[in-house]
What does this fold into?
Amino acid sequence: MCTKAISVNVRALSDKLNVPLIKPKGSKPYAAADDVLPTDLTPVITHSRPREIQFMRWGLIPANALDIKSVTPMFNARAETLDQKITFKNLIMSSRCLILDAGFYERETQGNERVEWKITPVENEFFYKAGLWTTWKDRLSGEITESFTMITCDPGEHSFAKIHDRMPIIMNQAERRLWMNPNATKEQLLALLKPCSEDVYKVMEHQRKPITGKGRQSPPPLFN
It folds into this structure.
């Protein structure tokens, strides 16, 4: 789920939050008009450096990986098992981040059509999504790659469940302050990993395309 996001105007965001924008050397320019896809550089704020916007690779590469090509990047992490997975459990306390984007897309199959829904903020210009990050170092070149994973949860009875069975953790001001707090306990942090309020976002149909060949049957449209 959530493998295509809407980029945010980082310069305007930097001015609005009154924090510097740190761009990695030699990186591909981040264009505000582009969609953000897995493995792209994405703006984040970490709890260890909360007064600056950094760019990290979407798709976490474990620090102990021998080679970037030898592992499948972890684009999303399930909140329910976060504290049980070796890759993530230590990052909860040491390496939290907020992922910044202006929205995201989800796809749904309806009969013989594939619908793409666009999810955007209602009041704010961008979302703050909960994530975890880490640093991987190439043993031969010494090159460092900072990467992150986006935390998702089960929407349960939430209206988001109408279009997908997973949703990102979108945080309000009080929640992100605690997520960024270096003194927060693990219990406090895990308690934050739940669906956001339904008035935080809006859903609209972005595009609808016919499926070539036989598509699986789905219920009629749930958002009009």
